[in-house]
Write a structure and sequence with these properties.
Layout (H helix, E strand, L loop, with lengths): L1 H12 L4 H20 L5 H25 L3 H26 L9 H7 L23
Helix pairs in contact: 3-4
Length: about 140
């Protein structure tokens, strides 16, 4: 807006305000740089934006589930609603938690998800263990 105002002023007065253009161009560049680098944005801001995004997805899925007659679309929409509810609950816990500045690690992720222990991986039954003695 500032550049446009200077351009309008210059056209009426038939002058060129080089210093205004230079100052406004540098200011615009600075704001673009700060935006791209996400300066001043922390984890709490990110989580709040994610909560808003998930809420929109839930509303859209609810509208789709209410209006459709296709059972597959209804199943997908209900699945999205359930997943987003769980995600929003996790985000709420993270925002309410006193240690919200700490990053989520594998250990405390299960705490946020209300899982008592880490799920155990079952060994694949199809893989066979070969040793040098069996060859």
């Amino acid at each position: 807006m500032g550049i446009l105002e200077v351009m309008i002023y210059d056209s009426y007065k038939n002058v060129v305000s080089v210093f205004f253009y230079l100052f406004l161009a540098l200011t615009l560049y600075l704001f673009i740089y700060l935006f791209k680098q996400q300066i001043g944005i922390d984890d709490v801001d990110y989580l709040k934006q994610m909560m808003e995004s998930h809420s929109r997805e839930m509303l859209l899925s609810q509208m789709a589930a209410d209006k459709t007659t296709n059972i597959q679309v209804k199943r997908i929409a209900n699945g999205i609603i359930e997943r987003r509810k769980r995600d929003i609950d996790v985000i709420d816990k993270m925002l309410d938690d006193d240690s919200k500045k700490a990053p989520i690690t594998k250990k405390n992720l299960f705490t946020y998800l209300n899982v008592r222990e880490e799920p155990k991986k079952e060994p694949n039954k199809e893989t066979k263990n070969y040793s040098m003695s069996s060859l």
